Amino acid sequence: MKQYSRVYAEIDLDAIAYNMEQMKKRIGGDSRLIAVIKTDGYGHGAVPIAKMFESVPYVWGYATACIGEAVVLRDHGIKKPILVLGCVFPDEYEAMVQNEIRAAVYTEEMAQGISETAVRLNKTAYFHIKIDTGMGRIGFPVKEESADAIERISRLPGVCMEGMFTHFAKADEIDKTYTLVQHEKFLWMKQMLEERKVSIRYFDCDNSAGIIDFPDMKHDLARAGISTYGMYPSDEVDKSAVDLKPALRLVSHVSFVKEVEPGTSISYGGTFTAPKKMRIATIPVGYGDGYPRSLSNKGEVLIRGKRAKILGRVCMDQFMVDVTDIPEAGFMDEAVLIGADGEDRITVEELADLSGRFNYEFVCCLGKRIPRQYRSGGRIVEQIDFFS
After folding, report:
1. Can you tell me which residues bind substrate (predicted)?
2. What are the structural domains, with CATH classification, of the chain?
3. What integer is the mean pLDDT of 108-130?
4. Is this model's pTM higher than 0.90 or not?
């Protein structure tokens, strides 16, 4: 396996498997999970994660944001169902049907277009009806007219209306009132469809926050997104209910160490000036890799188990840190940007707070310039490198 010096992301597949097991225990019963692997598995790598879950019975399938992400999974041999949570556009219907990808259907016109495509290709198109219970994004509104439209959709040729789902907007907040109202609306829509003799196999409400805080609000399926990767949806969910293990470690190496005199300015704009004689190390990572510029003069890295603060602005490809109090720090020393080193750990949440982001956004922005190294059973099992 290739060794990476500039930067690499270490992905712990065992941690991801553990996290999914914990979420399954939380929902219990016969309910199954959808592994949400949109945005390349929240920056962790969709394909290796999907391959790992192909043989796991309680993982029903996967969810992506767009048709392109789903097709990539099929191209890599993924067989389980894939649900596209966002819009599948008319020019994508053929790829959807040919690859047996599930669309989120939320208009009658969309369903008709998919039906026509399926009939033309002499295939069956599978899709899930999306209900807007309060997210205000996409979905059929909860009313009788929507139930009538869905009943008509169920009779279209060439289609299988396999599921119905909604998305909770505030399940990760302390006040659960809004989520309870959303769930009641979902049940009302389900009842209206039952009255119309509409047959649907799978019902699905919960996201990660819903699984953690509403384990009794179970349906056939539940979507595990951020929790799959060992992160909690917010600080307001009951973290004691589910033990999660962070799956990502971001590592670089020191590329240069120098001593500077008092008055020396560091990086673009000279936003940091050395107040005394200092030792400064350069880290060859920057916002071109998705490491945010907003960590300038704020963030820290771990070198030899000790914290080194960022000095000056984060550049596109490099930034500088203070190693004055780490006299042993030198060229090629490991610099941990995310994860543990010794007894200390830098979390995604810490960096997200400092940079004005949140954990979802932070990991999703880690760029393809960063090689991903996958570990299981204490060894490297796969590497994905954009440049190889």
Report:
1. 137, 316
2. 31-228 (3.20.20.10), 248-384 (2.40.37.10)
3. 99
4. yes
